[in-house]
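Bench notes, bay 3.
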Amino acid sequence: MVNDAREALLDRCVGLLKDGGFSQLSLRDIASGVGSSHRMLIYHFGSREGLLTEVVRRVEAEQRAALAALAAELDDPVETSRRFWQRLADPALAPAERLFFEIYAHALFEKSWTEPFRASVIAAWAGPVEELFVHFGWAAPEARRRARLSLAATRGLLLDLLITGDRGVLDDAAELFAQLVTARPPTAA
């Protein structure tokens, strides 16, 4: 029952984030925005930082599920990449992505509350993306290399988009990257 209440509260917090973000809001402001009290948020998440980390964890899980669904639907790695980039570049996701990069920045300085984030920020994505490359025909070692490159490049493109808003240029760059990272080596004559 506590887990159900926690998940329902987390659902409302994710909804508030998607409605406009809350990285600048206090815990009391967030609680008010979701119809709860700051004490309930502390009870379920330990701190404001714990709540923010859980919100990002949830949104990231939604994105991994969306990528897996695209890969299952499509038989083309470039089209999978293209559609996933379009999803990530949707302005509606910008508040969640800004929060992701805010926590990422704190993790770079090894803030203690970011330990769970640091433990999962690469690992939670690297495995599933590697599996996609294997699904599309690459051997495991090559799939691993391409997965890590894809993760780094996509995050870089997304960070650039959030800062510059240069959607057309970055759509083109994402398209080029998708073609490059999924290109097969030329066959020997």
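Next record in the batch:
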Amino acid sequence: MQPELVLPLFLTSTPAIPSWWQAVILGFIQGVTEFLPISSIAHLRIIPAFLGWPDFGVSFSAVIQLGSLVALLWYFRRDLQQVGLGFVQAVRKRQWQSLPARVLLGIGVGTLPLLLAGGVIKYTVGSPPRSLLVIAAALIGLGIVLGWAERVGSRTRGMADIRVKDGFWVGCAQAVALIPGVSRSGATLTGGLLLGFDRPAAARFSFLLGIPALFLAGIVEFVTEIQFTTESLVSVVWGTLSAFIFSYLAIDFLLKFLQHHSTRIFIIYRIVLGVIIIIGWAWGYWR
């Protein structure tokens, strides 16, 4: 039912612009799934296909991520203030081993793999394939790897133990999430667990590392792809507002959930959903 090749949203060659109420639903999907390790891109592709909607493309989902970014900045505003002020002091006193310096430098270094991989993809193939089979394989694959990380991770390290090189390795995991269905939060959470972080610390650093990633994804698509019309502007506003509200709730939920629970429920969900997609594709229900 869905074409394999999807033109960028808001170009004059495609009419695929969501209505305001579709944008609200897509914002809800974006907000809930952006920070849970279940892949926002997968759900923004799957649920419209299930509802018989067109694939609104990577551009719309990337732009409404700015709502998720604002939610992230607001939720961690005190943390970011402390890290920023601490980093300034670290620079003045040349205390590069202080926690604020390690966190901020880790975020900076961790963003480099994403920039490199994203740039290569952007200027070669344009965007990663959004085929449902690719998404299904990524859902199942990352689910298995996350389960392995839960099993072998020592979970003995907290945020106070973070090192700059940890940022690089978690950033490499984040770059893998450019494959639709992998999940940026899922990949970075997996990377943190494999490095020995406990679940809350792995999730917290995953969220902080997501700030430049969400900013870059949203701004690049906003500047390069969108051609504003009244209809597209209304859709973006409603989608972004919805994404902001539900992203904030999802961040709060996951941080509290991981204090007392493993990621098992998300692992099971990913694998089951991937299998359902494959079955639906094989039966010709969606393409």
